[in-house]
Amino acid sequence: MAAKPDDSKKRKHAPAAGGKSAPKKLKSSTDKILKKPHKSIKQLGDKKQQPKPHVPVESKRERRIQAKELAEARKKKRKKHYTLEQELASLWEKMRTRNIAKEERSRLVSDALKKMKGKIPEIASSHVSSRVLQTCVKHCTQDERNAVFVEIRPHFITLATNTYAVHLVTKMLDNASKEQQALFISALHGHVATLLRHMVGSLVVEHAYQLGNAAQKQTLLMELYSPELQLFKDLISAKEARLVDVISNLQLQKGSVIRHMTSVLQPIMEKGILDHSIIHRALVEYLTIADKTSAAEIIQQLSSPDLVRMIHTKDGSKIGIFCIKHGSAKERKKIIKGMKDKVGKVARDKCGALVLVSILSIVDDTKLLSKVIIRELEGILKELLSDQNGRRSLLQLLHPNSSRHFSPDELAALGSSVPSLVTKSPSEVNETETSGLGEAGKEDVDVTESSLVNEGGKKDPLTRRQELLVHSGLAEKLIDACCEMAEELLRSNFGKDVIYEVAMGGADSILSPTLDGKLETLHGVIASLAAHPKMEGSDEQHLFEHFHSSRTIRKLILDSPSFACTLYEKALKGKCSIWAQGHSAKVISALLETSSAMVHKLVKKEVQPLVDDGILKLAK
Predict the structure, then answer these.
(1) SS3 for 452?
(2) Are 235 and 221 contacting, i.e. CB atoms less than 8 angstroms apart?
(3) In this structure, what DSSP letter does residue 485 have?
(4) Please, are residues 71 and 64 in contact by the beta-carbon 8 Å criterion?
(5) Are 303 and 327 in contact (CB under 8 A)?
(6) At a CB cut-off of 8 Å and minimum separation 6, what does 211 contact?
(7) CA dihedral defined by 490, 493, 496, 498, rounded to 10 degrees?
(8) What average pLDDT does this structure show over 38-48?
(9) DSSP state, 619?
(10) Are 173 and 140 in contact (CB under 8 A)?
């Protein structure tokens, strides 16, 4: 039986007439387009002509005005004294001009202070109001300044930690009377350590420390030494300046003091607050009592590129010298690399120059020194020759540790060391320190340089100087600069020392025999300048008559026979009688006072008759 057809299947289209099926027509995209209803041109035109809803068009200017008004409204809500600040700002713009009359400025200042009365502690924290207050404090009367001081006195500590108010506090300190200054320093009592840990507050403590007298400075320092001294500030007197004396007189436990100072100083160093002299002083005092381990840790922590920020003060430079002396080679390398591009500034600084001198005298890595320090000194060589502090690094290489170029205090600083890091047993150091540092029969803490740990390298000092001065090429450039600037240096109060040391060839004849030819050239240049004839009525004195140059030339004659012969042949032969009086007489007499027989033989025929006739007098 045949199966029934499946009705569920899709019904086939009926065939077209004729029995043949019509060909299947393919659909195209154009068919779809044609099926869409077309809109007439008129309909399209009507749609364009339909009016849009009216939206008010704002210009850029109007939008800016609206934004400004909105910002003003928000500031009024957020700032309590916003309107007052705007009024003060307008007054400040007038009072700070330079060409304003004194009476008009006083009137504006008085108006501003009246508006701020009773609100100064609140508005001092504002960027604008703080500047207005600073100007007012600078130009107001003493009575008005006293009123401001009374108003902010209860809020000193709060204001001292504010970024903007701190400037008002320092300005008040600058203009404060002695009584007000004492009141302010007493207000810091109990807060010194806390404020020193604050980036902004530390500025106020440092400012007060700089302005205070010796007793006030001691009061601020004592809070860093011991909790007992922080609570009972009347325990110590101004005479007890050193921490060692304080511990001895008050019978404090040294271990307790060390622990307290460590807890105070460690956070300060970790935060990088290293610029202040009060911190430098506290660190120096700490190192005088610290045991070997504690002192070594501090030296290691400070031996970094940040040390360059400390060496601008007397105590800071002492810390720098400690780090150079007692630091390892690796730590010294960090310090030297930290000075890159700052050597010129360090060399010109009174205290920084001593640290640079210490580096040149101790560090053995002469290649690193030549690369970082010597090359930078060469670039500013002419500027350094006549600079009071800049010349010291050059003089140290030419004539080390000379009392002629360094004061006793400076030589003592260069020779100082950390007591616990010298090559003595800890028991001996502790006994020396706790016994009052100077009792009869006890050894003093100050020891010779040869007994210091890491105090110098293994290299011979003369070899180190030759590598830094001669082999690096510095000496040759130094002689060339002296030849070029000879007259200026001879007349200079500071330059005369440099040209004298160079013309002498340095201590231990370090420039000879390598640069003998250059030295002869320098001698010839000086002699040629001295050979210029004496000009009557000229404002500029001759080299033989000038105060500095005449004494420098006399000293060269006494100490350098070769220079004396060159000078006589080029400048004085047949002219000694002209220069036998006045300042120049000292130059002529030096030709006979020198110990060189060769010079005596050369000049005796011309100079001795001047002595016999009483025209020239010799020093006894």
Answers:
(1) strand
(2) no
(3) T
(4) no
(5) yes
(6) 173, 174, 181
(7) -140
(8) 51
(9) -
(10) no
Tokens read off for 191: 């807060």
Helix (H) or strand (E) holding 566: helix 561-567
Q: From CA 213, how far away is CA 270, in angstroms rounded? A: 29
b/e burial code for range 374-397 (CB count within 10 A of at least 16 → b): bebbbeebeebbbbebbbbbbbbb
Annotate 389-428 with three-state secondary structure: CCCHHHHHHHCCCCCCCCCHHHHHHHHCCCHHHECCCHHH
CA 428 to chain centre: 38
Whether residue 282 contacts residue 206, with contact meaning beta carbons closer than 8 Å, is answered with no
Cis status of the peptide bond prior to 561, with omega within 30 of 0:
no
Answer whether residue 340 shows pLDDT above 50: yes
* Residue whose token pair is 């053995």: 364
Q: Which helix (H) or strand (E) holds 161?
A: none
DSSP state of 54: P
DSSP element (H, E) containing 4: none
The single-letter code of the amino acid at 72 is E
Of the listed ranges 39-48, 426-435, 600-609, 611-620, the least confidently predicted one is 426-435
Cβ–Cβ under 8 Å, residues 113 and 142: no
The pTM score is 0.80
- Which helix (H) or strand (E) is 467 found in, with range? none
- Two structure tokens written together for 79: 């700032």
How far apart CA 54 and CA 49 sit, in angstroms, is 15
State how far the Cα of 557 lies from the Cα of 572, in Å rounded to an integer.
12
Cα 273 from Cα 139, distance rounded (Å) = 33
Which residue, chain included where needed, has tokens 């050894």? 443
* Contact call for residues 339 and 303 (beta carbons, < 8 A): no
CA distance 379 to 342: 12
Query: Helix/strand/coil (H, E, C) string of 232-261?
Result: CHHHCCCCCCCHHHHHHHHCCCHHHHHHHH
Comparing CA positions, the residue from 376, 412, 411 lying closest to residue 394 is 376
Residue 157 pLDDT more than 60?
yes
Q: How far apart are CA 556 and CA 490, in angstroms?
A: 12
- What pLDDT shows up at residue 498? 97
CA distance 178 to 184: 10
Instruction: Name the token pair of 27.
Output: 């659909």
Q: 614's torsion region: left (phi>0), alpha (psi -120 to 50) or beta?
A: left
Cα 517 from Cα 467, distance rounded (Å): 19
- 231 band by pLDDT with thresholds 50, 70 and 90: low
Query: Higher model confidence: residue 312 or residue 457?
Result: 312
Q: How confident is the model at residue 426 (pLDDT cuts 50, 70, 90)?
A: very low
What size, in residues, is the chain? 620
422 pairs with which residues across the strands?
452
Please report, in angstroms and rounded to a whole number, the separation of the first and last CA atoms in the chain.
162
For residues 372 and 362, give the distance between their C-alpha atoms in angstroms, rounded to a whole number: 15
CA 263 from chain centre, in angstroms, equals: 27
Tell me which residue of 149, 137, 142 sits closest to 112, measured CA to CA.
137
